[in-house]
Amino acid sequence: MPNPESLDTMISLCRHRIEAALDQILPAAATPPETLHEAMRYSTLAGGKYVRPLLVYCAGQACDVPMARLDAAACAVELIHAYSLIHDDLPAMDDDALRRGRPTCHIAYGEAMAILAGDALQALAFHVLAHENDSLTPHQRLRMMDTLAYASGSLGMAGGQAIDMQSIGRTLDVDELENMHTRKTGALIQASILLGGLAADPVDEQVLQQLGGFGRCIGLAFQIRDDILDVESATETLGKPQGSDEDMNKPTYTSLLGLEGAHEKLREVHDKALHYLDGMGPKADYLRQVAEYIVGRKY
Amino acid sequence: MPNPESLDTMISLCRHRIEAALDQILPAAATPPETLHEAMRYSTLAGGKYVRPLLVYCAGQACDVPMARLDAAACAVELIHAYSLIHDDLPAMDDDALRRGRPTCHIAYGEAMAILAGDALQALAFHVLAHENDSLTPHQRLRMMDTLAYASGSLGMAGGQAIDMQSIGRTLDVDELENMHTRKTGALIQASILLGGLAADPVDEQVLQQLGGFGRCIGLAFQIRDDILDVESATETLGKPQGSDEDMNKPTYTSLLGLEGAHEKLREVHDKALHYLDGMGPKADYLRQVAEYIVGRKY
Description:
2 copies of one chain form a homodimer. By secondary structure, the first copy, chain A, is mainly alpha-helical.
């Protein structure tokens, strides 16, 4: 069994690194246009879990990459994630007023500023990777950007969100649900893992294949766990065995497979994820622990 | 005097090239998620003037770059432009229902799809430049992406739009107005010119400086001409000497300088633009003609 204390140390180390790096990369709130920069900082430095940067660092660790060579990639995936949350929360999308216990970006800064903050964060993600950086070769940075742009575009994250918006009230089967999540949240999670592997010099293409498979599985695990948590926390706090009524129209793993079926699926996907790391030895232990963490997380 | 026929030929050549290239780069409308891809194609292949790709090709011409080496950059700037128009038209921003005589993206496909189409087009712009491309060196592509990301982010285009949103009903002076436009439309116009120069191998840093100065001036000229056209077309068609009433609260060059003052400013900026091309000889003729075209355009 992996040692959970060791992952906690890694999580806290990553958090400090990424918060410092993001703070440096984001324009100061005093730099004009001030409101836009405030909104960008508000939504990026919002005390998130920084799961995607953690994945970059852990995948890098599995490929013997020093942490300093991973900072740009870790920032880029978090900036893409932050932009996607701002846009997903908009009235025309999920219409959420709260995120992590605070008003969402458009509630705090208005809708126009929230749209622009998201747009500017996406540009900044690519800027971070494109900008002169001595620790990565030009070829490495290009492959990272190629991977990240694909994962966040219409065939990845943005496409998954489009499928999600169109699936409300419709019946999806498990394959369609998996396709939606593989794009919506899975693509960026997988890209985070791949970026860690792409920071190795030279890149080991065989290892990259394994990381890609691992990333696909834990992306899926992340979503299944989300759906299970939705039901279990609703059951605990509201005493009813389903997610919130508003979500009834949204297909989930638990609504399609039942709670037990979803747990079973989660175990399968977890096993498959670990299988992809076969032969990578103890240096992939952080990745194994991250998988455990995703499968077992309580919030 | 530059020969206008020759620029017309160049414009039509560029249009064919860029339309073919965009058609190839944009996912087919039949590729899932279909509605998202339809919306992306609807707004990108909308019969625009393709001014930014034209600038890439003309600047490349001034640096002896073959057209084939400029296609990726030309696509990238047009994709960024198309995304910005979709987002600018949204109800929370300029709330426009028509563009180029057709319903805007959110009218045709709904607001959620329009937000996502814009997001995905931005990702695609970077994907085009990051993706394997034999005609440019990795270093060239990185510099192009660095330039493009900066120009479209919070210190460029998105920042300019934020300043614009906040300036409605406020009094700006000419410097503030210039700062807003330099970012909002100027940054991407300048970047288009720079990308043409960055496709040269090796890049001539002195020429790049000149192109940057030229790009800044014609970006400004573009906006001043816009403001003048607004007044002149309103005067012609409505018989009143000001732009549409809705715009009365928006500062413009004509509202700050008067119609004659705006014409004067346009002439100054045009002269300055041409001055930046001194010493570049006849191969910069297309750029000179483009400046003429921008200053003289009637729509």
